[in-house]
Amino acid sequence: IMIEKDRLIIEHIIKQLDVKKNKIVVRSIRKVNMAFQAIFSMLLPGSLGKLVLIRNFNKVLHGIDFRIKSGETHSETLEELSGGQKSIIALSFIFSLLLSKPAPFYILDEIDAALDLCHTQNIGKIIREYFPMSQFLVVSLKNGIITKANLIFKIKNIRGKSVITRITNKDCND
Asked: Could you write out the DSSP letters of every residue in 31-78?
């Protein structure tokens, strides 16, 4: 009888912890969703994006999904999107997660590889606007992000040797 009583107490505690955990997760996802919506619409002007909670038939949280509207087009699945659109969704989600607990320093390697110039410029705007207290080291081969940088280290291969040039923002137009 004592073991059965203890089992019931433990099951009750587990249920209480599950409810508390789910409330915290839902609150966090809603906070991230607000940032996601703002960042997505900045990266892809004229479009709307949001995170949707996925629950099973018992209302248990199963995960999140993305809902995207670009003009008159609604996408139901990520498979319907181009590589650039998927990159914008991923970057929007990553930046919105980073906003929930910003760090002082980030390293991003060619995050703009699948994007065109206007979208890479928007990434630079997001970094400047949403992360004023953070430093970013961004590796990029495109000028979009580079034009928004405070400082650039340009690396060229000259006769088999890497030559590094330091460029400040006022000189970035070359």
From this structure: HHHHHHHHHHHHHSTTEEEEEEEEE-TT--EEEEEEEEEETTEEESSG
Longest dimension (CA), the chain: 83
Residue-wise pLDDT tens digits, 73-112: 666 667 777 788 888 999 999 999 999 888 999 999 988 8
The number of CA neighbours under 13 Å toward the Cβ of 93 is 16
Q: Which two tokens stand for residue 73?
A: 């087009």
Residue 163 structure tokens: 């030559």
Distance CA(71)–CA(46), nearest Å, equals: 7
Residue-wise pLDDT tens digits, 37-75: 999 999 888 889 999 888 777 676 778 888 888 776 666
The CA-atom distances, in angstroms, between 80 and each of 65, 74, 85, 93, 164 are: 14, 10, 10, 18, 41
- pLDDT over 70 for what percent of the chain? 91
Contact 144, 124 (CB under 8 A): yes
